[in-house]
Amino acid sequence: MRKAFISPSKYVQGKNEIVNLGYFIKTFGDSALLIAHKDDVTRVKEKLEHTMVQFGVTIIESGFNGECSRSEVHRLQQLAKEHACPCIIGLGGGKAIDTAKCVAEGDALIIVPTIAATDAPTSHSAVLYSQEGEFDDYAYFKQSPSVVLVDTNVIANAPTRFLVAGMGDALSTYFEARATANSYSHVNAGLPCGANGGVGQPAIGTKAALALAKLCYETLLEDGLTAKISCDSNVVTPALENIIETNILLSGLGFESGGLAAAHAIHNGLTALEGTHSYYHGEKVAFTTLVQLVLENASTDEINEVLSFCVSVGLPVCLSDIGVTNVTRLELLNVAQKACILEESIHSMPFPVSEEDVVAAIMVADLIGQEFKKKGE
């Protein structure tokens, strides 16, 4: 039985860690192309200038246009060649990070997240969009980033909503990895069949990945609320450090090497509902984690534990929390149809799932969440 596990070559996290960025650039050469939104560059400008002087390196700004599109990737690759940059830096949120992955194509890549809203920084995959922002394709690379460098002061000073959304994304990690393990389904650490035109080398997850996914969930329960309060106050505490690691590293390793299941598939289906469009990925995944638990008939104790955590940190627990009101059964069926297409991760559940099963689970999870909130009022 073939198993696979994938991870960054190096993960470093700490206060003011960006001042050490030049050290990692130096391991590749004397310069790097920086792919980042101008606002993110402004936030860390002094640290970037400091690290260039301290380590004698040049960081070349690229004027990133904000979209991970094929044309932008091509432009940035040409810019890197013109300046003979031996490495690429992706600094900021998801679009900058994914663009940097595409430009680097799996080599000499440093990722510097400025928010802890998703687990994308550690992964070897990216999402491409059109210039207008419409989904284009997934891209997979031969390895994860060479370095993931996390400055906890920068994340502590970002809006708390990003951190909480990251906790919502991380919340699904253990439950999806558990389902994937129980069904012996393939994980992304083994190249998906057909990825980048290849034949694929499918593999199941390792015990290490499942253990990390479980630690991800346990740390959320233990430190989530204190971390949120810390971020509200813009200060770094041990709890915030633990949750940053949870959102970025544990969740990243857990999803890619442990597997995705119903929660992310149903999230993808929910994008068909216009009301959800103003909510972050992790906010919607928090609710669809509850949907997955209903779908697999999890124990009342486990569902209540997840509900309690979500309410404590301000994550959605019902449809109205993600902008969906007065939804019809036909609209929910459309969500379910998108969640159940052949390519979706919902088929990693350890039992067959029909579109009607998904509709029923969404409806029940919504009612359970509403009732739980009423009891707490």
UniProtKB/TrEMBL annotation:
Glycerol binds at D119, D169, H264, H281. The keyword Metal-binding applies. Residues 8-152 form the Alcohol dehydrogenase iron-type/glycerol dehydrogenase GldA domain. The keyword Oxidoreductase applies. It catalyses: glycerol + NAD(+) = dihydroxyacetone + NADH + H(+). It is an enzyme of class 1 (oxidoreductase). One of its GO terms (molecular function) is glycerol dehydrogenase (NAD+) activity. GO terms for cellular component: cytosol. Its EC number is 1.1.1.6. Belongs to the iron-containing alcohol dehydrogenase family. NCBIfam families: PRK09423.1. This is Glycerol dehydrogenase.
